[in-house]
Design a protein that fits this description.
0% of the residues lie in helices and 49% in strands. The chain is mostly beta strands.
Length: 118
């Protein structure tokens, strides 16, 4: 099993920045594709950013240019640097790991909340 624990959520003003962290358990973190998903009220959860074991990144259009995903394998941690946050950004962010297939996320964190005030 892989346990994922998100941290770094909180309250920020519109236009502000926040960095989320996701710490993973286990010894195979470096081989996983990691992703940050987010969900707004009344909408489906969407993949915002992902990073492969080789460091290749992919971003949803809604976050491109504002968010940066990175990983630090020595710490079993993936990060999401979020800049230029707006109240329109989804509130709940989930860290996930794809351990068996490139885009099939089979382990999920509990989620962390990001609130942007106007």
């Amino acid at each position: 099993q892989v346990q994922l624990v998100e941290s770094g959520g909180g309250l920020v003003q519109a236009g502000g920045s926040l960095r989320l962290s996701c710490a993973a358990s286990g010894s195979s973190f470096s081989s996983y594709t990691m992703g940050w998903h987010r969900q707004a009220p009344g909408k489906l959860r969407e993949l915002g950013a992902s990073i492969t074991s080789g460091g290749r990144t992919n971003y949803a259009d809604s976050v491109k240019g504002r968010f940066t995903i990175s990983r630090e394998n020595a710490k079993n941690t993936v990060y999401l640097q979020m800049n230029s946050l707006t109240p329109e950004d989804p509130v709940v962010y989930y860290c996930a790991a794809a351990t068996r297939a490139l885009w099939s996320y089979d382990y999920w964190g509990q989620g962390t909340q990001v609130t942007v005030s106007s």
